[in-house]
Write a structure and sequence with these properties.
The chain has helices at about 10-30, 35-55, 55-60, 70-100, 115-150, 150-165, 170-190, 195-210. The protein starts with 11 loop residues before the first helix and ends with a helix. By secondary structure, it is mainly α. The radius of gyration is 17 Å and the shape is globular.
Length: about 210
């Protein structure tokens, strides 16, 4: 009788990395100051990255070097295409859905000014883009591949999880997040390296918040 055990469909370290993210989201809802809101947000994201670094099995997935599988021109086209598509559909689609389903938004991003705005528009948005793409694209792809394969089932599942992570922003934003997730995962599979997708995520958020 074999003593080997089958690999879990979704590894436990993936769930462990999601826990501080969700906890930080819940804590954020009760913050009344912009500074406290951001500190809660940053803390959850940094804690998730620490979880990935501390657990050896997660570290080999999350932080191993990657090389581009496409040329620079195609990579740039993907980055510009994902960013442009998101900016075109974001406000019209999310606004339309939120009008159909009002009352689903549970919180809003704080209004920032001065040095706090400068920090968030640089460090904050870069942290968001890197952390979310690392977990929901790079780690999510591997976490769901054993269960769903590397095709459309995995793409839809990871994009749905990415959209669900935005539960507090309302159904409209969740819908646009899912569409962005699909495009980002397609780009990641094609490009082979994560950093161009992180760049597209950052540019999309920068254009939305700036």
């Amino acid at each position: 009788m074999s003593s080997t055990r089958p690999a879990l469909a979704v590894p436990l370290w993936f769930g462990a990395a999601l826990m501080p993210l969700v906890a930080a989201q819940i804590v954020r809802l009760y913050q009344t100051s912009a500074f406290a809101w951001l500190m809660s947000d940053y803390s959850g994201r940094l804690a998730a990255l620490c979880v990935l670094w501390i657990i050896p099995a997660a570290r080999t997935v999350a932080f191993a070097p990657q090389r581009l599988k496409v040329g620079v021109v195609e990579m740039v086209v993907w980055v510009i295409g994902i960013t442009a598509l998101y900016l075109i559909i974001d406000r019209p689609l999310s606004g339309f859905i939120d009008n159909l389903l009002p009352g689903t938004r549970m919180g809003r991003y704080p209004v920032l000014h001065g040095w706090l705005y400068a920090i968030d528009i640089t460090f904050g948005l870069a942290l968001v883009a890197y952390q979310e793409e690392l977990i929901f694209r790079r780690c999510g792809r591997l976490a769901f591949c054993n269960w769903l394969g590397d095709g459309w089932a995995m793409i839809i599942a990871t994009s749905f999880l990415f959209a669900s992570y935005h539960w507090w922003t309302g159904v409209g934003n969740m819908a646009t997040a899912m569409l962005f997730g699909i495009g980002a995962m397609l780009a990641y599979r094609r490009i082979g390296a994560l950093w161009p997708v992180v760049a597209a995520h950052y540019l999309s958020d920068l254009a939305s918040f700036a």
